[in-house]
Design goal:
The protein is α/β, with parallel strands linked by helices. The model has no long low-confidence stretch (mean pLDDT about 90). β1 and β2 form a beta hairpin. The chain has three domains: about 35 residues, no CATH class; about 45 residues; about 170 residues, Nucleotidyltransferase, domain 5. It contains twelve helices and five strands. It is elongated and about 110 Å long. About 25% of the residues are buried. α4 packs across α5 and α10 crosses α11.
């Protein structure tokens, strides 16, 4: 009816005039017209912006090649993006890397959704090396010797493992070994007051609350700093390193004795300090971050 022409003017009546005369809403007419029209096949919208240097298939091949060659397991899209940008010089977006890895089931299996409630809103990171270290212990099951202990010390500035020790018994004496190892490597001495200005973050384990442990770190000039009870986030830097160590080097392996565990931990620490890229450091490795601060001309 709206397309019919008036006999007087020769013009179409129009849908507005017809709907007003019939007292019908125009939206109803448009809706019924849309429903009666068969749907047409619509292809995917073309990609906007300039064409990237690598197609999705070519970029996916680079991602797969890096994941296969990486000495670490479960690398996430952030590490892959950093490698493509820094090492291979490929210009692409992180969202594109994440999309390709998600579509091909290549995302890290260790990534979990963040929790809504956070017990700690502060930061444990230090602004300079050798100002704040964290230490903690872990256990590994072996075939011949049963449970064996491991202790580590991590610099909060760059998450670098400055010391480690694997032993049969988790005593207060063995808990001091990674601290001693770190002092020799970073301060060059284990004498009285060798580490003045250094603070050590630790939990309330029996090794760390013992008189011998506390007196020894005081002899070195180290200030003690305990995390909150039953809240491992307070020692999160050391806890996160131990989680990475277990995922990358210990889980899924069978160890016969303490020596084999020590060899695995030692090999991982070398790989981690020199090749593990950390997002909060601008995707630098721990060794690169320390070198950049201690030798400004390398920045």
């Amino acid at each position: 009816m709206s397309r019919e022409r008036s006999a007087a003017t020769g013009r179409p009546y129009g849908i507005q005039r017809v709907c007003a005369a019939w007292d019908v809403a125009r939206s109803t007419v448009y809706l019924r017209r849309k429903r009666s029209t068969p749907p047409t096949a619509v292809g995917p919208a073309p990609r906007r912006g300039p064409r990237p240097p690598l197609s999705d298939d070519e970029l996916l091949a680079r991602i797969r090649a890096y994941l296969q060659a990486s000495p670490f397991a479960g690398e996430g899209h952030r590490k892959v993006f950093a490698h493509l940008k820094i090492v291979e010089g490929i210009r692409t977006s992180r969202n594109r890397v994440r999309r390709l890895m998600r579509e091909n089931s290549l995302l890290s299996p260790y990534r979990r959704p963040s929790e809504n409630e956070r017990a700690h809103d502060g930061s444990l990171a230090a602004t300079l090396p050798n100002r704040l270290w964290g230490t903690d212990g872990f256990r590994v099951q072996t075939v011949e010797e049963g449970w064996v202990w491991g202790f580590i010390a991590v610099d909060h500035f760059n998450s670098e493992c400055v010391g480690y020790h694997v032993c049969k018994e988790g005593t207060r004496f063995n808990a001091l070994e990674p601290i001693r190892m770190g002092l020799e490597a970073c301060f060059g001495s284990v004498g009285r007051g060798a580490a003045l200005g250094l603070t050590l973050r630790m939990d309330h384990g029996c090794q760390y609350t013992s008189d011998h442990f506390l007196h020894q770190i005081a002899y070195w000039g180290i200030t003690r700093s305990f995390a909150f009870v039953s809240q491992p986030q307070g020692n999160g830097i050391a806890e996160r390193f131990i989680k990475t160590l277990k995922q990358q080097s210990l889980y899924g392996r069978i160890f016969r004795n303490t020596q084999e565990v020590h060899q695995a931990v030692s090999a991982f620490v070398q790989q981690y300090n020199n090749h593990w890229r950390i997002e909060r450091l601008g995707f630098l490795t721990p060794a690169e971050a320390r070198t950049q601060v201690l030798t400004p001309e390398a920045a």
